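User: Okay, second chain of the day. Same drill as before: sequence in, structure tokens out.
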Amino acid sequence: MKKFIVLFAFILLPSILLSCKNSNDNIDDENVTKNETIFKAAVVEIEINDDFEIITVEPLEGEQILSVMDGGNILKFDISELDDIGISIGDIIIVEHAGILLQSLPPKVHAINWSIHKKADK
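Assistant: Same drill. Structure tokens below.
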């Protein structure tokens, strides 16, 4: 019985605990800010090529996400896994993201959904 307890305490328990490790544990907390998960923004730039699909947006004045962004007022996110909603530069969009703002230059979010709030005037 003692062998089982020793085996469990020194081999199985650490293995179980390591397998439960959060996938976000490897993110440097100094560069991450958690905030509201929805904001409105104007589309500033759309970059699409064979390797990536990135959008640059400027959150609208008064959006809470601006208060946690360090410097500047633009941010980027990957749109390759989002539905094609036919956006254009100047459109106002609603972005739902995973709740974490990566404080890089420019800041980035992981968008999980988006929609067009208002199409740009042509």
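The longest strand covers residues 38-48.

User: Thanks, on to the next one.
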